[in-house]
Each structure stands twice: as C-alpha cells, then as structure tokens.
What does this fold into?
Amino acid sequence: MNNKRANKTPSVQVHERRATQQRVNQRKATQRRVTQSRTTESRAAKPKAARSRKSSMPFLLALVFLAMLIGAAWWHMLPIAIVGLYLLLSLCTFIAYAFDKSAARKGRWRTKESTLHLMSLLGGWPGALFAQQLLRHKSVKAAFRQLFWLTVVTNLALLGYGIQTGFMDRLI
It folds into this structure.
C-alpha cells in the first residue's frame, strides 16, 4: 500500500496540519469580517430614529383598536364576547408567530403563511402586529406584509359591517 503520510516524519505531518488549520482560521476570519461589515452597512443605512418611529406605529394601532373595542363593549355597542374573541385570537396568533419564529431558527417544520394570514383575518391581527414587532418575525418580507395588511383591512371592514347591520348582536 502506497500511503503518502506513512513516508513523512511526524514533525512534517504536524507542520502540515498546523498550516492547514491556519488557512482555515484565516478563511473564517475573513468571512466574519465580511459579514460584520455587511451588517454594519445595513444598520448604517437606516438611521436609528427612523427605525424606532417605524416600530411604534403598529403597537399604537393595535392598542387603539383594542381600546376602542373595549370601549364599544363598555357602551353596549358591541357584545363583550367579541372583545374576548379578539383578545383570544390575538393571543393565539402571537403564539403561532412565536412557534414559527422558533421553528425558523431551529430549521424545523414551519407554520404556513396562509395559516398566519387566516388567523389575522379572523381577528388575531393585533396579536400578529405585536409578534411582528416584538419577535421581529415576518416584518420584512414585503409580499407577506402586503397580504397581512389586506387581512387587517378586510377584518375591520367585516367588523364595521357587522356592527352597522346589527349582525354582531345576533352572532353572540
């Protein structure tokens, strides 16, 4: 059997292993520097003030909506069960986003986007807004965000129609 390593002395083998390890370490260091510079560039592209303003609006929207919903129930314009349903669906939607975020990080089975959209459409969109902001999940992908906002508008339109026609009173 013709083995190249068998012909070399142990000191030559050690030297070759060290040289190989140094090349690997240099490649890794270069990759880290490139990644860090890209991250720094992307952070520098958005001023910190612009990022913070963008993130406070969805919280405000969800809080105002929930406060108005509670107020409508308080003034007997809406059944209290509708408020409970919105809160329950929001909590379930937030949890679904959290599970999906965890699965994304661990490379496991993901929640379908259509499921997340359906939960938002049914009334869980305040929880989805909180999840998108707090967990930073599904907050960048433009196609997802557009469809998400369509589900929010559709849900609000259906709620308004239900209140206007008195359907909500008959529903619960």
About this structure: Residues 121 and 153 are 9 Å apart (CA to CA). The helical segments are 10-45, 48-74, 80-106, 113-134, 142-165, 167-171.
